[in-house]
Amino acid sequence: MTMALMIEAESKNEHPTPIVSSPDNPATVESTAVADVPQSPQPTEIDAGTVGQVRTADPFIVSENIDVYYGDNHAIKNVTLEISSSEVIALIGPSGCGKSTYLRCLNRMNDSIESARVTGTITLGGQDIYSKALDPVALRARVGMVFQKPNPFPKSIYDNVAYGPRIHGLAADRAELDNIVHTSLERAGLLKEVIDRLDEPGTGLSGGQQQRLCIARTIAVNPEVILMDEPCSALDPIATARIEDLMDELSNDYAIVIVTHSMQQAARVSKRVAYFHLGTLIEVDETDKIFTNPQHKLTEDYITGRIG
Ligand SMILES: Nc1ncnc2c1ncn2[C@@H]1O[C@H](COP(=O)(O)OP(=O)(O)OP(=O)(O)O)[C@@H](O)[C@H]1O
Ligand SMILES: [Mg+2]
Predict the structure, then answer these.
(1) Which residue owns the Cα nearest ligand 1 atom 24?
(2) Helix (H, G, I), strand (E, B) or coil at 80
(3) C-alpha 293 to ligand 2 mean position (Å)
(4) In this structure, is residue 172 part of a structural domain?
C-alpha cells in the first residue's frame, strides 16, 4: 500500500470503531519470524498472537503478559512488549482499544483509578516498577507524561518548570534552579517566546506553547521515558510540527511512547508502531513495515480505513 493510500484512509479514520467482536481467551504473545514475510497479511483472528517484533536488541522498558481490568472489563489482554531507551514508538488503534490504559501502566498512573487492576510485570532498566519498594512519585519523575490537553499548573511559567526540580530536590540553590528552568524551556523550544514573561501565568500561553511548557516541565526532572497521550490532538499544524520536531530531538536522550490517532504523525515521528485492537497487541514492527506491508489482516484493515 502506498503512503498516499494510507493518508487517504486516515481521513476516513478520525474516530475508528472496531468491527470484530472480542473473544474472551487472551492472545498468546510470540514474535513471528520476519524472514518469511507473507505477500499479503496472513493472520486474521484477534487471538492469533502478536505478530512482528515485540522484542528489541536493547530493551529498556519490558512489559511481560500485562492484563488490565476495570472491574469486569478486560481492557488489556496479555500484552508483551519491549521498548528500547532511545526510540520513539507509536501506539495506534481504534478508540477504546486500550492505548491510554497501556500507556498509563508504564508509570503506574492506573494506580489512581480505583477499579483498575494490573497483572503481569513491567521493568524499567531491569527494575520492577510494580514492586512495593518503589515509590510511584519517584517513578513518575523517571517516566514523565504529557497529556492530550495541555495542563499547566495555575502558577507562573517559571514555577511550572521549577515545580518538579523543587519537590525532588534537584537544585542546590536559586542559580541552579534558574539554570534547570532555562535549559528545560530551551530544549522544549519555548525559551525565546517566554524569556521576558517567566513570572506570568502558564495558563496565559497559547495551546501549543502550553504543550511545550508541559514538555519543559516533564524534562526538567531528567526523566528516562516520556509518555505522550495524543499530545497534538488539540494543536494546529504549526504547533504540531514544532512538537514533532521536539520529539525528534528528545528521542536522542529519552524513550518516547506516543499514542496518536494520526497515522501520518506515527509515520513521521516513530521508529516502531504498535497496533492495538480490543485490548490485544495485534502487531508491532518497524514503522515503514507496518504502513507498507502489515502482516496481520486487522492491522491492514485499520491502516486502510476498513476499520472505522
Ligand atoms: N478510568 C476508567 N475506568 C473504567 N474503564 C475505563 C477507564 N479508562 C478506560 N476504560 C475502559 O478501558 C477500555 C480501554 O480504554 P482506553 O481509554 O485505554 O482506550 P484508548 O485506546 O485510549 O481510546 P481512545 O482512542 O478513545 O482514547 C475501554 O473499554 C474503556 O471504556
Ligand atoms: Mg486514549
Answers:
(1) 95
(2) strand
(3) 26
(4) yes
Q: Which of 194, 193, 159 is nearest to 178 (CA)?
A: 159
pLDDT digits (tens, 9 = 90+) for 219-233: 999 999 999 999 999
> Which grid coordinates belong to 38?
507473507
Check residue 29 and give its pLDDT: 34
- Please report whether residue 1 resides in a domain: no
Q: Which residues contact 94 (CB under 8 A, 6 or more apart)?
A: 16, 17, 18, 277, 302, 307, 308
pTM of the model: 0.87
Residue 234 lies in a domain: yes
For cell 519537590, the residue is 167
For residue 101, which atom of ligand 1 is closest to its CA?
18
Q: What is the distance between the alpha carbons of residues 273 and 262, in angstroms, rounded to a whole number?
A: 12
Closest residue CA from atom 12 of ligand 1: 75
Q: Residue 36 has what pLDDT?
A: 45
Provide the residues around ligand 2 (an ion) whose CB is within 5 A.
100
252 inside domain? yes
DSSP 3-state helix, strand, coil percentages of the chain (rounded to 5)? 35, 25, 40
Name the stretches of the chain with pLDDT < 70. Answer: 1-41, 308
Residue 126 near residue 64, CB atoms below 8 Å = no
Q: At 131, which CATH number?
A: 3.40.50.300
Owning domain of residue 58: 6-303
Q: What is the pLDDT of residue 34?
A: 40
Residue nearest to atom 30 of ligand 1 (CA): 96
Q: How far is residue 65's CA from residue 207's CA, in Å, rounded to a whole number? A: 37
Q: Which one-letter DSSP state was computed for residue 195?
A: G
Q: Residue 77: what pLDDT?
A: 97
**Of the candidates 171, 157, 170, the residue with the CA atom closest to the CA atom of residue 199:** 157
Number of domain units in the chain: 1
Q: How many CB atoms lie within 10 A of CB 164?
A: 21
How confident is the model at residue 9, as a pLDDT? 45
